Amino acid sequence: MLLKEHAGALLPSSRVAWCMHKITSGNHQVILLGSEKLHQSSLRNVALCSSVWTCPVCSSRITEERRSELSKALSGRYLPVMVTYTLQHGRTESLSDLIEALRDAFRRLKSGKAWQVTRERYKIKAYVTALEITYGSGSGWHPHLHMLAFLDMKEQDFSSEALKQEITGRYRAILSKKHGKYASDDYGIDVRAGNAQAGDYISKWSIEMEITKSPVKMAKDGRYSPFQLLEMSRNGDKQASALFREYAQAMAGRKQLTWSHKARAILGLGAELSDERIAGEPEPDDTRELMRFPRATWSRIVSKRLVAELLSVADDCDIGAILDFLERNGIHRIEVEVRDG
Questions:
Q1: 201: pLDDT confidence band, cut at 50, 70 and 90?
Q2: Cβ–Cβ contacts within 10 Å for residue 325, how many?
Q3: What's the CA gap between 339 and 65, in Å, rounded?
Q4: How sure is the predictor about 64, in pLDDT bands with cuts at 50, 70 and 90?
Q5: What is the mean pLDDT of residues 300-307?
């Protein structure tokens, strides 16, 4: 939650700045909730930003649901194949330019007869794509485009190297001709088949989100994830602050996952839920009301930047500790309505 507040401070005109601060329309008070079983507090009647890219709180909820969906898709009859696309990148290049070159090259690769031949040869029934962004102090932004494809064939009949060779030449030619970019034969495209390979990547999503709850760690090969940059910024790194702002601008309006036509129906996933729907996750079964804050009181809590600490204190569902915290910060007992205990 402290990391979310810092993201809001870095991006004051964005949705994350008011996430869990604004009272939703038609309500006049904020309700503080607690789950003793999970040692978890939450708020009701506050607006959520549902930003999967810049809000650690909403991103964690949304990503977990998306990960769950992909895990369900992996349990079906199709062979999962993870194809990862990347491109040449330098320290001075903007993230937006790199993403546009990468996505445009992928779109062009999928157009035309050659791609149709590839789809038919490898019996690709559906696929989903996702962007992954890291930053290296020596090499700059490093975007990857992951395509998780579902093939109607046996693993023993599939050759990762054959598929890689079939698409790498076209991909490199598109990057060079249209964007003046280079992708190596060895690393421009990576192909890995089987549930274990795809499952490792999907599981990493959940681990990646744990950065919001634990100390910052060095990413693989000396690269940092966006939320690691955010943590570094919170610790006073001005370059990390500038990089996170650049990342937020580059990712604005982009979806976390993009499914091919009819992919969800083919994989038995049903209709896709919006990020907004997922972010407003159901409350735990043992959730109970702890306290209510009138609009004026909540405005003072927000203005004093106490929301993150309030939720941290409330995780233990100790009414006395919550009231003591509020008193120490100038919010008196008469200004709140205690609902339990």
A1: low
A2: 17
A3: 31
A4: confident
A5: 95
Reply yes or no on whether the pLDDT at 217 is more than 50. no
pLDDT given for residue 204 in this prediction: 57
pLDDT tens track for 67-121: 888 888 888 899 999 899 999 888 889 999 999 999 999 999 999 899 999 999 9
Report whether 42 contacts 13 (CB < 8 A).
Answer: no
**Strand order across the beta sheet in which 40-44 lies:** 40-44, 29-35, 288-294, 337-338
Average of per-residue pLDDT values in the chain = 88
Q: Alpha-carbon distance 275 to 254, whole Å? A: 12
Q: What φ, ψ does residue 239 adopt, rounded to 5°?
A: -65, -40
3-state secondary structure the chain: CHHHHHHHHHCCCCHHHCCCCCECCCCCEEEEEEECCCCEEEEECECCCCCCCCCHHHHHHHHHHHHHHHHHHHCCCCEEEEEEECCCCCCCCCHHHHHHHHHHHHHHHCCCHHHHHHHHHCCEEEEEEEEEEEEECCCEEEEEEEEEEEECCCHHHCCHHHHHHHHHHHHHHHHHHHHCCCCCCCCCEEEEECHHHHHHHHHHHHHHHHHHCCCCCCCHHHEECHHHHHHHHHCCCHHHHHHHHHHHHHHCCCCCEEECCCHHHHCCCCCCCCHHHHHCCCCCCCCEEEEEEEHHHHHHHHHCCCHHHHHHHHCCCCHHHHHHHHHHCCCCHHHCEECCC
pLDDT attached to residue 183: 83
Length of the chain: 341
Give the amino acid at 136: G
Query: Which two structure tokens, joined as six digits, stand for 231?
Result: 């943590």
CB distance 142 to 229 below 8 Å: no
Structure tokens at 95: 């993230």
The rounded distance, in Å, linking the Cα atoms of 165 and 167 is 6
Q: Read off the pLDDT band of 215 (50, 70, 90).
A: very low
> What average pLDDT does range 7-21 have in this prediction?
95
Tell me the C-alpha distance between 139 and 132, whole Å: 16
**Whole-angstrom Cα distance, residue 75 to residue 72?**
5
Residue 225 tokens read as 């994830």
